[in-house]
Design goal:
SpoVT-AbrB_sf; alpha+beta; Looped-hinge helix DNA binding domain-containing protein, AbrB family
Length: 85
């Protein structure tokens, strides 16, 4: 186990050394879970965040030929409305 050292900034931020990021496969979007015991020992766990919020969901057909657009509520939008407004 190699020891790495970083400095805490005045805003409380630290940089994870590149060698650790590579070794632990830490990528942007991953989270770090910090744990401290009563003796002041600190441990950090990497929580992988490799998927979008909706990746576990299957796409749902809105019906039609697939060329229609829908608003957030699923209602079909009228393209003429946008051309005239």
């Amino acid at each position: 186990m190699a020891t790495e050292e970083t400095k805490v900034s005045d805003r409380g931020m630290v940089t994870i050394p590149a060698s650790l990021r590579r070794r632990l496969d830490i990528e942007p979007g991953d989270k770090l879970r910090w744990n401290a015991d009563d003796e002041g020992n600190l441990s950090v766990e990497v929580v992988k965040q490799r998927y979008g919020a909706f990746d576990d969901f299957e796409p749902v057909s809105m019906g039609g030929s697939g060329s229609e657009t829908h608003d957030l509520a699923g209602h079909e939008e009228d393209p003429a409305f946008f051309e005239n407004n």
